[in-house]
Design goal:
321 residues, alpha+beta, BURP domain-containing protein
């Protein structure tokens, strides 16, 4: 059975199940998701970055899931390219990313904090990679879908995916990434629903928070970027949520102490303008010595703060001043 046939079967199965659940679960609608947001943040409008990822009742149809299908197929066909820029997690090691051609890793995939100043030139090619546009599932649906390595075979059956297909590899990789134990001083969780995503951030930071996300829209695949103004976002702890490759929105959220977060305005010679977010990890002593950052920067763990930009689609929670 072909890869595309397996995906089509997955779309049909999941569409039928979601539509059936929509008829019996009142919290499927985006309006209920907005109500849930309002119950937590009564004086704060739902940010567009979240509102754009909600499933609307009219979207619970074949058209919506055909759009998911198109996105999935595109992502899986380009997964080897995406792997080159999968550096948002401090657990990425050079031996676990041995498919990389180190000679072609651009110089600013990791950088020192001293480079974040006005006028600096940045080779930040990872900022040009498109984000995964699939939407959040409501908790009432997400909780019915298994999400663990122990249930991997069941997940493949549920999605009608062949174990040898590229989809199976991505599903396995995403779940395993979520199951990697947290580093010392780190708290982490993979949220598979809108409600769980909100609940976890609140459990770590409380309700007095702000949300930031990169807004830079590049006009070429490799723009020459210059740093404009740089603003440090103050907070004893920040929660960074990275959107993973999956059939629906799954975010790996983790809180790392001693991490400086900066909002960086970037200007490109191609006309690109907008903000990105840079995370600078002050303590890398618990990172593996095989981490790609140490290979790129030629330093040892725990010796100097290491920074990287956050990819498009990343959502960062910061305590309000």
């Amino acid at each position: 059975m072909s890869f595309l046939t397996n995906i089509l079967k997955f779309v049909v199965v999941l569409s039928v199940q979601l539509v059936g659940l929509a008829a019996s679960k009142s919290d499927v609608s985006s309006s209920t998701a907005q109500v849930y947001w309002k119950s937590l943040f009564p004086h704060t409008p739902l940010p567009g970055v979240l509102a754009n990822q909600l499933i609307y009742p009219s979207d619970l149809s074949g058209d919506y899931f055909r759009a998911i299908l198109k996105d999935m197929v595109t992502k899986f066909r380009t997964i080897e390219v995406d792997e080159k820029f999968k550096y948002d997690s401090p657990k990425v090691e050079s031996d676990s990313a041995n498919k990389l051609d180190y000679d072609n890793v651009h110089k600013d995939v990791f950088f020192f904090e001293t480079k974040l100043h006005e006028g600096a030139n940045m080779d930040a090619m990872e900022l040009t990679i498109g984000e995964n546009n699939v939407a959040f599932l409501p908790r009432s649906i997400a909780d019915t879908i298994p999400f663990s390595s122990q249930n991997f075979s069941q997940i493949l059956t549920y999605f009608s995916v062949s174990p040898e297909s590229p989809v199976a590899s991505v599903i396995k990789e995403t779940i395993e990434l979520c199951e990697i134990p947290a580093l010392k001083g780190e708290l982490k969780r993979c949220s598979t629903s809108f409600e769980d995503f909100l609940d976890y951030a609140i459990s770590l930071l409380g309700k007095h928070v702000q949300i930031f996300t990169p807004s830079l829209e590049t006009k070429s695949s490799h723009p020459n970027l210059t740093v404009g103004h740089v603003t440090q976002l103050v907070g004893k702890s920040v929660v960074m949520c990275h959107k993973l490759n999956y059939a629906y929105a799954v975010y790996l959220c983790h809180s790392l102490k001693r991490t400086h977060l900066y909002e960086v305005y970037l200007i490109g010679k191609d006309g690109s303008r907008g903000t990105s977010l840079a995370a600078c990890h002050q303590d890398t002593s618990s990172w593996s010595a095989k981490h790609l950052a140490f290979h790129v920067l030629k330093v040892q763990p725990g010796t100097v703060p290491i920074c990287h930009f956050l990819k498009k689609g990343t959502i960062v929670w910061v305590p309000s001043p």
